[in-house]
Amino acid sequence: YSSHGLNQMSQTYHQLYMNHLCRGKYQKKPRPILINNWEATFFNFNADKIYEIAKVGYELGMELFVLDDGWFKGRNTDKTSLGDWIVDESKLPNGLDDLVKKITDLGLEFGIWFEPEMVSQDSDLYRSHPDWCLRSPHHDPIVGRNQLVLDLSRQDVCDYIIESMSKILDNSLITYVKWDMNRHMTDIYSSTQSSNRQKETAHRYILGLYYILEVLTIKYPNVLFEGCSSGGGRFDAGMLYYMPQTWTSDNTDAVCRMKIQYGTSLVYPPITMGAHVSAVPNNQVGRVTSLQTRGHVAMAANFGYELDLTKLRNEEKNEIKRQICLYKEIRETVQFGQFYRILSPFETNETAWNIVSKDKEEFVAMYFKILSEPATSIRTLKFKGLNSSYLYKDLETGKIYGGDELMHVGITLKRVKQDFVSQLWRFKRFKG
User: Fold this and answer.
1) Is residue 228 scored above 90 in pLDDT?
2) In the predicted model, is pLDDT for residue 202 greater than 90?
């Protein structure tokens, strides 16, 4: 219940999840700025290419490198090898540990991708244990994304996942795991249950998943686990209890992300959302947006990049350096402040939100115009959640505003004749 609209309702959920649901080392710890290689290389990489991307990332100010799908034996397409969590020596001839050490020696942390709950039919695991997946005993299994779902209602399957992941995490300085799940559960039948108990299988599956996560998160308290299910398909409180953040969507297009992040914020705080700057034309929709707009959208959550840094022009690298420096300055406010929605992309051609520090001493605001329109009227933007008696200084222009003025009168927006434009403001309390 909220007596002051959806923003107050969201604040209740945000504080509940941040302070009483998420747990462990990363509950109150700022999240690192990362570079993920997926949209940079997909399956086509080797150790040298990964190191080159990581090296540029470090030079630009990033803090974490994440090795995505394709690092394990025979995984050159999405049709094979899930379940066989053994390093592919044709891509990483000196092993994973060597790559981890080289990248951590640069000064970056290292993260890695798993899809532990799935199995490919073309895998050693499936050939050895075809009964380990969810499937009807009387029909061919329904395959999604060339894979099947392992039966986590079985203790032996849970133990296998824990053991195989532990072999990777025990031997390397890995501080981040992206835990993916890329297909829905179908054929929900377990070979270990009697016919009159099959309806329990889906529930027992989730209990098995929670058991695995309980063991791994206790065993590896210094690892930041991020949940993923084709992006945000598993954005739920049960997963946040074990994984304090979720990859918000596989759709990295900045314009699509306005709706995705705006909608997710109804219940989930920015610190639980992963958001990346990707290359253009965007891989999912083909749209071309400016690096500035892509950066501003991603800065409203846990910030990262997902593109081939080695192919960037110098001016793009300089822009990314500026974005990273800016985000490091606003990170505490974005990740631990109070998030307020202002303009909805579901209702208008615009999107706006602002995030206010807990003490209301500073705030960050972002505005996005999606499509340019002719002869538009002069627009003002009214911020939310400020202290009405404080004075706030715009750190870019130096102008001083009253908190009540910013909330009830607002500031005039720039008129720009261009699609997909953005503007970001930083304000701090002025005590002069």
Assistant:
1) yes
2) yes
Encoded amino acid at 232, one letter: G
Category of 375 on φ-ψ map: left (φ > 0), alpha (ψ -120 to 50) or beta: left
By the 8 A CB rule, do 10 and 265 touch? yes
Return the structure tokens found at 299.
């800065």
Is the torsion defined by CA of 91, 175, 329, 362 positive or negative? positive
Residue among 129, 116, 422, 393 at smallest CA distance from 299: 422
What tokens appear for 324 in the block?
A: 């990273």
CB atoms within 10 A of CB 85: 21
Judged by phi (left if over 0) then psi (alpha if -120 to 50, else beta), residue 222 lies in alpha
- pLDDT of 53 over the 90 cut: yes
Q: 338-343 — which CB contacts under 8 Å span 24+ positions?
A: 338/11, 338/14, 338/385, 339/10, 339/11, 339/14, 339/265, 339/269, 339/270, 340/7, 340/383, 340/384, 340/385, 341/6, 341/7, 341/10, 341/262, 341/265, 342/381, 342/382, 342/383, 342/384, 343/367, 343/381
Residues 6+ positions from 47 with CB-CB distance below 8 Å: 91, 92, 93, 94, 98, 99
CA-to-CA dists, residue 277 to 41, 151, 183, 307, 329, angstroms:
15, 35, 25, 8, 18
- Please state whether 214 falls in left (phi above 0), alpha (psi between -120 and 50) or beta: alpha
pLDDT at 36: 98
- Please compute the mean of the pLDDT values over residues 297-307 and round it to a whole number: 98
Q: What confidence score (pLDDT) does residue 193 get?
A: 94
Catalytic machinery residues: 180, 250
